[in-house]
């Protein structure tokens, strides 16, 4: 199911980006300083904030303003890498959007802090693999193509974390969005994992050539990147367009706290300017502050995350809130639409849960519709009830009680068998059992049936024709014979 967000205009039409596709294919943004990369990232983050959790690695502190409008928690890195890992773990548990600001650290400290935070996101427990957009500005600082002035240890840690994000993060729900000033300075194994590209104004020949190659353009077209105005990008990828398109990025609702790149008239001349700047300060007088006050230290952020609740949008009122019955009806409808997808039968519950959460946000279901364990239970029951209501209500209630005592991944498989037993229907086929388990392998589904039989939940047998029958002792019911299966090697005809 598509979830389109608006990046701006392309040829007078809205420039739409499929957020669902982006979560699976990642994004690379490239452009020289002043090309509008940060503005593009801000537009992307603002437009997608209602639909997906976000984490921003911000080396300059430009994105802290997202906290005021969209409720992001600002985490100020202070050199305690262990604390950052704990923060990242809680971020995934509580599904909080965060901005990690690194402007208070030197280059070596920034790389270590980014590696610790990304490592915490990556190493989260499987039940917390919710979809998350991980945006890294100035990615060449954290995944450099060559060694620089930082220590080898910091570079190894940071490069490894960035590689994990772009190469292995998708299965953990992490979708990398990286921006760089120069492709030549970015490690190739990190850049190569992105399938979507937005290329802005570029002047160096080597960077123009690489950008043209990534977009499938001819080398003679590479010089067009020199002529792009500020805020315009050439985009390509499955989440953007199948052919290169020029996108003019739209306006943003928040602004960077950095100085605006404009002219400001000088103040009127003062009489004794020399004395103002050269006269030493009196003893005991503190020098002027070098920077704005920092946000809360990392140690305090842990308690903030535990107590965090996403703020309601400004336009939402009490009248807009859904009553429980309407909310439940929408959740049931969304769950049914997820299962109606052609590929749902071969997807794992975690993958289906990502799709479910995105669809719920599109339907304006506020907060967490269902936790992952609740979703797995509802998914199992919905799959088993796909043919309509079960005739024996008491037996079905008992079957659900038994399923609740089983591991989450086996509950759906058991309920499909239990329903067939209650109704006296034929034993489910291998393909039906595989779909209930969330796989395409009939052999794997049969192994799970053997596991259930070892636990005494079911008993399998065959009739004289070799047709399979499954009994559920706690329900006092069994399925009708399924399709007969010939013995190995087939039947041999006797000859006299």
Automatic annotation (TrEMBL):
Residues 13-67 form the Helicase HerA central domain. Residues 475-496 are annotated as: Disordered. Signal peptide: none annotated. This is Helicase HerA central domain-containing protein. PANTHER family: HELICASE MJ1565-RELATED. Residues 476-490 have a biased composition (Low complexity). SUPFAM superfamilies: P-loop containing nucleoside triphosphate hydrolases. It comes from the Bacteria. It holds the Pfam family DUF87.
């Amino acid at each position: 199911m598509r979830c389109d967000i608006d990046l701006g205009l392309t040829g007078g039409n809205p420039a739409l980006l499929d957020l669902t596709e982006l979560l699976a294919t990642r994004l690379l943004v490239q452009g020289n300083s002043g090309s509008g990369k940060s503005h593009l990232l801000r537009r992307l983050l603002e437009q997608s904030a209602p639909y997906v959790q976000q984490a921003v690695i911000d080396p300059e502190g430009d994105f802290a303003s997202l906290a005021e409008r969209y409720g992001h928690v600002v985490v100020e890195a202070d050199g305690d890498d262990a604390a950052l890992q704990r923060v990242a773990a809680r971020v995934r548990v509580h599904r909080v959007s965060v901005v990690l600001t690194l402007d208070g650290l030197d280059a070596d400290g920034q790389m270590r802090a980014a590696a610790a935070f990304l490592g915490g996101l990556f190493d989260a427990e499987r039940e917390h693999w919710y979809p998350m957009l991980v945006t890294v500005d100035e990615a060449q600082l954290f995944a450099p193509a060559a060694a620089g002035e930082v220590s080898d240890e910091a570079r190894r840690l940071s490069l490894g974390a960035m590689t994990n994000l772009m190469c292995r993060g998708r299965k953990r729900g992490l979708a990398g969005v990286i921006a760089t000033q120069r492709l030549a300075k970015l490690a190739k194994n990190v850049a190569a994992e992105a399938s979507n590209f937005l290329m802005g104004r570029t002047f160096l020949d080597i960077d123009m050539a690489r950008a043209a190659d990534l977009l499938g353009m001819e080398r003679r077209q590479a010089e067009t990147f020199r002529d792009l105005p500020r805020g315009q990008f050439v985009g390509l990828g499955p989440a953007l367009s199948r052919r290169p398109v020029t996108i003019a990025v739209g306006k943003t609702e928040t602004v960077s706290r950095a100085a605006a790149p404009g002219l400001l008239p000088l103040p009127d001349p003062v009489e004794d300017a020399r004395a103002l700047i050269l006269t030493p300060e009196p003893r005991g007088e503190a020098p002027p502050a070098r920077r704005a006050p920092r946000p809360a230290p990392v140690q305090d952020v842990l308690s903030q995350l535990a107590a965090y609740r996403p703020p309601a949008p400004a336009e939402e009122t009490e009248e807009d809130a859904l009553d429980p019955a309407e909310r439940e009806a929408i959740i049931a409808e969304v769950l049914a639409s997820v299962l109606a997808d052609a590929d749902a039968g071969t997807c794992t519950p975690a993958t289906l849960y990502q799709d479910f959460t995105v669809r719920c946000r599109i339907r304006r279901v506020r907060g967490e519709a269902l936790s992952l364990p609740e979703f797995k239970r509802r998914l199992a029951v919905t799959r088993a009830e796909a043919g309509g209501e079960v005739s024996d209500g008491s037996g079905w209630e008992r079957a659900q009680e038994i399923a609740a005592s089983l591991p989450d991944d086996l509950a759906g498989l058991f309920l499909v068998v239990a329903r067939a037993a209650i109704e006296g229907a034929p034993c489910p086929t291998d393909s039906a059992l595989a779909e209930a388990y969330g796989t395409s392998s009939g052999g794997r589904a049969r192994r799970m049936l053997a596991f259930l039989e070892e636990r005494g939940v079911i008993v399998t047998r065959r009739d004289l024709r070799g047709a399979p029958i499954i009994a559920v002792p706690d329900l006092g019911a069994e399925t009708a014979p399924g399709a007969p299966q010939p013995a190995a090697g087939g039947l041999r005809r006797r000859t006299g």
